[in-house]
């Protein structure tokens, strides 16, 4: 990337042109594509990275995601997704890399909310701090319907580690520090670990009205749909081409419904269109 492009991407007006478009979607590795996002342009990072979890032992974690995160008796097996087989040390280091890269894109006081499970909770808390964010706490997502295990406490929660890019101003509303809802039925999901829209809308309430939310592990696009539903702008990055296309379709459908309700238009930009925007004087 040449100096002219870097200067453009660092300019607040360039950031405004980017986010005014409504939705920007990119397909590829977030560590490569994050450099194309203007610094200081993101109000909130809300993302659900691969957990590299799903088992007590290294051999368990090496299994495909479809085996680790879906019941053995389910008939609707979802496709595997990449990046879910790291061991503990490499997972923590990898999370630190992308947290640090995402921090540069966040405005001062911006919020990050990162999904994880009980096995990777400590690693994620470490990673947000090693990546330069201020660790603020944990938001449990409690599922009222969970598979019982004989002789064990039920594993009926996932967790959101939340952090900030420095100081948080004492303004805005009060936000409940937990959320109770069930995941979608497997038959209604596109992605094996798809998060409920109502959960994402609850979490992004801390972002400014009309602000920009970024998800670097977009999956099937649920965060983008929640942004459209709540009138926020969205930047989504997804590595898998199949899930990227599914996300694009879901977000376009949500936009079509929003236009009927709000009579507005917020086009999705391709990577090529984003590059043309960057090249504008």
Description:
The chain has eleven helices and nine strands. The chain has 281 residues and is α/β, with parallel strands linked by helices. It has a single domain, classed as Rossmann fold (3-Layer(aba) Sandwich). Strands 6-4-5-3-2-7-8-1-9 form a nine-stranded mixed beta sheet, sandwiched between helices. Helix 6 packs across helix 7, helix 8 packs across helix 9 and helix 9 packs parallel to helix 10. The protein is globular and about 60 Å long. This is Methyltransferase. One of its GO terms (biological process) is methylation. Keywords: Methyltransferase, Restriction system, Transferase. One of its GO terms (cellular component) is cytoplasm.
Strand order of the largest sheet: 6-4-5-3-2-7-8-1-9
What's the order of the H and E elements? HHEHEHHHEHEEEHEHEHEH
What is the CATH topology? Rossmann fold
Total of domains: 1
Spatial shape: globular
Strand segment tally: 9
CATH architecture: 3-Layer(aba) Sandwich
Helix % is 25-40%
Determine and state the CATH class. Answer: Alpha Beta
Unreliable runs: 1-20, 64-70
Sheet/helix structural class: alpha/beta
Gyration radius, in Å: 18 Å
Keywords: Methyltransferase, Restriction system, Transferase
Domain DNA methylase N-4/N-6: 42-249
Family: Belongs to the N(4)/N(6)-methyltransferase family.
Biased composition (Polar residues): 62-72
């Amino acid at each position: 990337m040449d100096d002219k492009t870097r200067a453009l991407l660092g300019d607040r007006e360039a950031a405004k042109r980017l986010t005014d478009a409504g939705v920007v979607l990119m397909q590829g590795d977030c560590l490569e594509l994050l450099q194309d996002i203007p610094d200081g342009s993101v109000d909130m990072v809300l993302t659900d990275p691969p957990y590299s979890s799903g088992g007590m032992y290294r051999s368990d974690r090496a299994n495909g995601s479809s085996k680790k995160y879906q019941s053995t008796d389910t008939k609707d097996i979802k496709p595997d997704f990449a990046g879910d087989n790291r061991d503990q040390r490499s997972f923590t280091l990898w999370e630190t890399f992308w947290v640090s890269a995402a921090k540069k894109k966040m405005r001062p006081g911006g919020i990050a909310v990162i999904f994880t499970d009980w096995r990777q909770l400590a690693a994620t808390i470490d990673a947000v701090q090693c990546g330069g964010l201020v660790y603020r706490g944990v938001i449990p997502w409690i599922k009222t319907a969970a598979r019982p295990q004989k002789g064990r406490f039920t594993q009926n929660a996932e967790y959101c580690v939340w952090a900030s890019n420095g100081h948080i101003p004492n303004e805005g509303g009060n936000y409940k520090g937990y959320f109770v809802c069930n995941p979608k039925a497997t038959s209604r999901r596109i992605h094996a670990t798809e998060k409920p829209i109502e959960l994402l809308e609850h979490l992004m309430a801390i972002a400014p009205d009309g602000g920009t939310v970024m998800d670097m592990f977009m999956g099937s696009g649920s965060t983008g749909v929640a942004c459209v539903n709540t009138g926020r702008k969205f930047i989504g990055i997804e590595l898998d081409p199949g899930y990227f296309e599914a996300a694009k379709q879901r977000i376009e459908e949500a936009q079509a419904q929003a236009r009927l309700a709000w009579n507005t238009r917020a086009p999705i930009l391709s990577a090529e269109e984003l590059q043309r925007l960057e090249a504008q004087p």
